[in-house]
Automatic annotation (TrEMBL):
The lineage of its organism: Bacteria, Bacillati, Actinomycetota, Actinomycetes, Streptosporangiales. It comes from Bailinhaonella thermotolerans. The chain crosses the membrane at residues 38-59, 66-85, 91-112. It comes from the Bacteria. This is Uncharacterized protein. Keywords: Membrane, Transmembrane, Transmembrane helix.
């Protein structure tokens, strides 16, 4: 039986979950690091936004507890946002070796997320959490 998301309805492999988590952590660390020389406030805001958006907005069936239900494409966009920030901010803030590793993880995340994304695109968008 394939592994599913905490909401129990969307397929989500352990590898995909781990890579997605590493990409999120990379974005949370690299974004403020890259922005801090320009504005400490912007650096702090970047972390708040990157953590708050996926916490507040989620697709029912993908997460066990949904605060604001959104259709699957919104959840996919949030994952892509984290991937883009992780890759771009790592190149702005870190040495090339670290940035290359961060970019590789973000790209690997894309490959492992495809089954989940297909399911999220098919997920009903009008459902509300029970």
């Amino acid at each position: 039986m394939p592994r599913t998301s905490p909401g129990g309805e969307i397929p989500d492999s352990r590898v995909a979950s781990v890579l997605r988590f590493l990409t999120e952590i990379t974005a949370w660390v690299a974004a403020p690091w890259a922005l801090a020389p320009y504005s400490p406030w912007l650096a702090a805001l970047s972390v708040v936004v990157l953590i708050a958006l996926p916490t507040i907005f989620a697709t029912p069936g993908d997460k066990a507890h949904v605060i604001v239900p959104v259709p699957g494409p919104v959840t996919i966009a949030l994952v892509i946002l984290h991937q883009a920030v992780a890759a771009a901010a790592s190149w702005a803030a870190w040495p090339p070796v670290a940035a290359t590793a961060a970019t590789a993880v973000a790209l690997a995340t894309t490959c492992t997320e495809l089954p989940r994304w297909r399911a999220l695109l098919k997920a009903p968008s009008a459902r509300t959490p029970s």
